[in-house]
Here is the input.
Amino acid sequence: MADLYSKLGVKKGAEEAEIKKAYRKLAKELHPDRNKDNPKATERFADVTAAYDLLSDRDKRAQYDRGEIDEQGNPRGPFGFGGRGGGGFHPGAAPGGASYEFGGDGADFGDIFEGIFGRSRGGGGGRRPGGFGGFGTQGGGRAPKGADISYRLAVPFEDAATLKPQRITLANGKTIDVKLPNGVESGTQMRLGGQGEAGPGGNGDAIITVDVRPHRFFKRDEDDVRLDLPVSIDEAVIGAKVKVPTVDGAVMLGIPKGSSSGKTLRLRGKGFHRKDGSRGDQLVTVMVDIPADDPGLEAFVETWDGKGKRNPRANLGV
Here is the structure.
């Protein structure tokens, strides 16, 4: 079995920033949305997510480097036996734990939930003690916590952009509203301490992996939202005020007189929330919609004084 560092393509002594960068790159390449017909990519996505989850926790990483816990975060027994039953990590599963999926659409746990790329290290739940000392305790210290439980949460595009809380039901039957973190994107993980499986040293954690669903006409461009907006020929020629959809609801937008297809207009603050709390913009690209069969329009163009007097391809050298 490849070690966790090899799964992320980094060396054992890699800095936290290097590990984070490697994970982000792999997560984007292997995300299920981009590999719908490639189950192996989905399995590897789960593997690298599990590897990052352990290595991004300073205490767990130190225990792993000392050989006190295995790749699933389970304590290694005194004679080389693992702490839990066999079986590899499968898509959506927490190391050694169960897996649940939710389809989108609340107790608010506020800042308990933090994105995996921005959470602080060294504190909080989710730690598993190291190797066993005497009778099932760690060198006379704490007993191991229970396994983490993994959840996959499908979040509608608009909800992710506006950070709308998402309702889920945990394995213990508790229903909560998950507060999405600033900078949320597909692959972002949130941890809820003490909501995993029970163990001698306390409960494990609930680990929620976000999957932002694609939209039928909005597209994400880093922190901005892009939209191709059809406009009629009269709206483009003489200008108009038109209603435009945004992730926050419809707004009025002025189409400047003489707008051509490809002209991009900006609606500030209508994009995704950045990690610092500010928001990206919505970029609206005008697409002039010309009717295919309009005798009146055809007759006008035939008699138009400007016909043939301007070459819109001049900049292309033709």
